[in-house]
Amino acid sequence: MSPADAKKGLGRGLSALLGTPTGATAAAASEGPRAARLIAVGKIRPGTFQPRRSFDADALAELTASVRTQGVLMPILVRRDPKDPTGYELIAGERRWRAAQAAQLHEIPAVVKDLGDREALEAALVENLQRADLNAIDEASGYRRLIDEMEFTQERVAQALGKSRPHVANTLRLLDLPPGAQKLVAEGKLTPAHARVALMAPDPGAFAELVARDGLTVREAEAQLKELADPRFAKKKLKQAPKGSARDADTRAIERRLTDALGLNVELKPRKNGAGELVLHYATLDQFDDLLARLEQDPKAPR
Questions:
Q1: Closest listed residue to residue 174, CA positions, set 199, 150, 149
Q2: Closest CA relative to residue 186, chosen from 230, 226, 155, 140
Q3: For residues 281 and 269, what is the distance between their CA atoms, to the nearest angstrom?
Q4: Which residues form the catalytic set?
């Protein structure tokens, strides 16, 4: 695959990878050589090129319950296993495959495509990097693989996936965090905005743990960082947040629920009088448009 073809292939969505023509009816699509077939779940192994490293247990349990009653509605994408000619290697749709296993299904609908390693990597990255629920560390790892293994520049990654160039650069910076801090980001205990502040600290790992432990807002983290940069505090250890600035566990739990539901970083700022502020952080206009679309679909949303 030439670099031009690789660039063209990205950003088209999973429907393009499955080979379904634009505007084709379900009946017509089912007649082509790329039609889905039923494959034994046990004949499929996880993909070598899967960029996703973590799967939310609650979300997977919900999907399993749906699969148990409705079946797998969208086929997964596989190729013949290079290591086992009788089996298949998963390219896209690992959550559906895991849910099918948990639901004890014997077969799963799948599209089989003849893909080389480069094409398999591209397909896996396309399907996962376009998902809103991919955590920032897995997203950064996916970008890094496009750059290292497919020789993409940051600009080409941005263009191919519909992201801004600064978003790609800032996301890649998260890979400079020590492993412990990366884990906090992957688990949703630290937002990418907090993580970028931590990267400027003398000890990013310790600072990231402080921010997550005390539930600091981004502004509070920046203020803490400025204090650490003051020569008068050069030998001072990282301290607890000032009394009253750390938020309670309920507030942080609500923020995590809203973040999971909206796919955006959410900041809740309650006041003593019962009022407060709800701040939604979006990284791209696509995220903003998606939020507006959700509000417009809600019959109770203001018009």
A1: 199
A2: 140
A3: 14
A4: 94
> Three-state DSSP class for 215?
coil
Q: How does pLDDT run across 92-143, given as a tens digit for each residue? A: 888 899 999 999 999 999 999 988 887 887 777 777 776 656 788 988 988 8
Q: Quick one: pLDDT at residue 15? A: 44
Q: What angle do CA 97, 98, 102 make, to 5 degrees?
A: 120
User: Which structure tokens are listed for 140?
Assistant: 């950064």
The helix, strand and coil proportions of the chain, stated in percent and rounded to the nearest 5, come to 55, 15, 35
Q: What is the pLDDT of residues 204-245, one digit of tens each?
A: 999 999 899 888 899 889 988 888 776 655 445 555 444 444
Report the C-alpha dihedral over residues 255, 256, 262, 264, rounded to 10 degrees: 80
The burial class, CB within 10 Å (0-12 / 13-18 / 19+), for 23 is: exposed
Q: How far is CA 87 from CA 42, 95, 211, in A?
A: 9, 19, 46
Kindly report the three-state secondary structure assignment for every residue of 71-106.
CCCCCEEEEEECCEEEEEEEEECHHHHHHHHHCCCC
Could you tell me which of 16, 43, 20 has the C-alpha nearest to residue 30? Answer: 20
The two structure tokens encoding residue 275: 């009022």
Find how far residue 10's CA is from the centre of its chain: 17
Q: Do 50 and 124 contact (CB within 8 A), yes or no?
A: yes
Q: Is the pTM here over 0.70, yes or no? A: no
- The span from the CA of 218 to the CA of 239, in Å, is 16
User: Rounded to an integer, what distance in angstroms lies between the CA atom of residue 208 and that of residue 189?
Assistant: 10
